[in-house]
Design goal:
Elements: H1 4-24, E1 40-45, H2 61-64, E2 72-74, E3 80-82, E4 85-90, E5 95-100, H3 114-127, H4 129-135, E6 137-143, E7 146-151, H5 158-161, E8 185-191, E9 195-200, E10 213-218, H6 222-230, E11 236-238, H7 245-249, E12 254-260, E13 263-269, H8 279-286, H9 291-298, E14 303-305, H10 327-336, E15 340-342, E16 345-347, E17 355-360, H11 366-379, E18 384-389, H12 393-399, E19 405-411, H13 419-426, H14 440-450, H15 455-472, E20 475-488, E21 491-492, E22 509-510
Parallel strand pairs: 1-10, 1-11, 17-18, 17-19
Antiparallel strand pairs: 2-3, 4-5, 5-7, 6-7, 8-9, 9-10, 11-20, 12-20, 13-19, 13-20, 14-20, 15-16, 21-22
Helix pairs in contact: 1-6, 3-4, 8-10, 13-14, 14-15
Length: about 500
């Protein structure tokens, strides 16, 4: 990996290219004389999406682009709000009643009623195993605008799971290539991995949609996103290169948002690897991680070192012993695990050097750099790490086992609760359990959490679970990155959210 000195060498070249692009590119700012109905905006996102089917797309493009909506949404304070369901109730956490909002139509023109919602949820359950595993639905009934759902066990957090974009409601009777949602924008065209073009939904149920058109473009190359923004072919760029922030802030026509996100970058261990299934080995690997260099060097201060999966101010984050980068402690950890250390180099009990494969991906530009840092530090111990970059990390991790380590990033508390991540990452059937973690004691804790109603008791159970995860070092948590967005000063009502779920909204405007 690039040590900080190498990383700094990379920055001037990138900035020089970007400044040249800025100097030579004509302005694409909206014309002051443009009619209000012709307003449009282009957003450049960092993850390519091969699909806009909200029930299967792991990038949540349909919800992020304002095409489809869920029954419940989460606000900026991470509190639940009514959306397509205007109220809901459960007396026991197992039998739920939802009132589906009246006066809402799909883009197809069909009215949204309980039967349509039922059909949409059933489609999501059928297409997406992670939705099925998360919702635990036993049966659904529809009567007019009243939807009743029974889960297979008491599940107090069920309603918060309906915030997830993969549960978005669409018209299942439409056979077109594009989803028919209820959002402020309708799909005009879509090119997989390239761009999504949107038109205003003139009949939007929640009032005026300020933009007539919007474009949601994809590019995983951070420098290419930055060049496009500097060339003014995009109005909003999601996650520009961190090294470009000072240049962006110096431009009076640009606004930059940077706020702590609910996201955590992680190092996943494949428990099918005979070495990594040992707790002592995982702990030794954790000593190879220089979190301060990641946060201050690679992230240029746009993140904080992570001691666990959640931000420290959550009530289910324990008081951690600060994790230190220490090569000698790593060597000692390998010794305690039964490995030999000669001349500072580690070999397994059979005398063979360790050789591992680490997966990473480009849509988060810092992850390959973090991977190289881990690779360089492991080399100091004689451990060889081969880095492989893949296009779709979720699909690859789910379908393959030819890897040992993986850098990964996920929003760990999108609704301000620990249960989402604990269920997804550590339950045997969890959608994010790519490392094949199976710890019966932890499974029991999470199962108890899932049936506990009292918030204080839930936090205590989550705290116990997170403490066990730390004790066993089931993953290494690297850094909590800031959510960084740059946009032109003529863009109004843009909101950089911690949840990252809602990007193109009815209120987004340009002048």
């Amino acid at each position: 990996m690039f040590k900080c000195s190498y990383f700094k060498l990379f920055i001037p070249a990138v900035i020089a290219v970007m400044m040249a692009a800025c100097a030579s590119s004509p302005s694409a700012s909206p014309s002051p004389s443009a009619a209000p109905q012709d307003k449009s905006v282009t957003l450049l996102f960092n993850v390519q999406s091969p699909s806009i089917d909200p029930h299967s797309d792991v990038n949540y493009t349909a919800v992020r682009a304002g095409v489809s909506e869920t029954l419940i949404k989460v606000n900026k304070d991470l509190k639940l709000e009514a959306w397509l369901a205007d109220k809901w109730d459960s007396k026991d956490g197992q039998h739920w009643t939802f009132n589906i909002r009246s006066g809402v139509n799909f883009h197809s023109g069909k009215a949204v009623n309980a039967a349509a919602v039922k059909a949409s949820l059933e489609r999501s359950l059928k297409l997406n195993p992670s939705v099925k595993n998360a919702l635990h639905i036993r049966d659904i009934h529809a009567d007019g605008q009243i939807l009743t759902i029974t889960t297979d066990k008491p599940f107090p957090e069920f309603v918060s799971e309906l915030v997830h974009p993969n549960t978005a409601i669409i018209d299942t009777t439409v056979t077109d290539d594009f989803p028919s949602g209820t959002g402020p924008f309708k799909v005009a065209s879509f090119r997989a991995g390239s761009e999504l073009n949107l038109d205003r939904n003139e009949q939007y149920w929640n009032g005026e949609v300020k933009l007539k058109h919007a474009k949601f473009m994809f590019n995983e190359d951070a420098n290419a996103r930055q060049l496009a923004f500097q060339a003014k072919t995009a109005d909003i760029v999601y996650r520009p290169p961190i090294e470009s922030l000072e240049l962006l802030k110096a431009d009076s026509t640009v606004k930059v948002d940077s706020l702590p996100s609910l996201r955590t970058h992680q190092l996943i261990y494949n428990m099918n690897n005979n070495d990594l299934k040992k707790t002592a080995v995982r702990k030794a690997f954790d000593n190879l991680i220089n979190r301060d260099e990641i946060a201050s060097g690679i992230m240029s201060g746009q993140g904080t070192p992570a001691q666990g999966p959640f931000l420290s101010d959550f009530p289910f984050s324990p008081e951690y012993i600060t994790k230190q980068f220490d090569l000698n402690a790593a060597r000692e950890g390998f010794k305690q695990a039964g490995y030999t250390v000669q001349n500072g180099k580690v070999a397994n009990p059979d005398g063979k050097p360790l050789h591992l494969t680490l997966l990473t991906y480009q849509s988060r530009a810092e992850l390959p750099l973090i991977s190289q840092l881990i690779q360089a530090n492991a080399k100091e111990l004689g451990i060889t790490i081969d880095i492989r970059q893949v296009d779709n990390i979720d699909e690859y991790l789910a379908a393959h086992q030819d890897w040992d380590l993986a850098t990964y990033s996920s929003i760990t508390a999108p609704r301000g609760d620990a249960s989402y991540f604990l269920n997804a990452a550590y339950m045997p059937e969890g959608a994010l359990n790519y490392g094949r973690v199976h710890v019966p004691e932890l499974t029991g804790m999470i199962s108890q959490l899932n049936t506990t109603v009292n918030e204080e008791e839930r936090n205590k159970l989550a705290l116990k679970a997170v403490t066990l995860i730390d004790q066993e070092n089931l993953q290494s948590f690297l850094v909590h990155p800031n959510n960084v967005v740059a946009y032109r000063d003529y863009v109004h009502n843009w909101v950089t959210s911690q949840s990252e779920y809602y990007l193109l909204t009815q209120d987004l405007d340009v002048n």
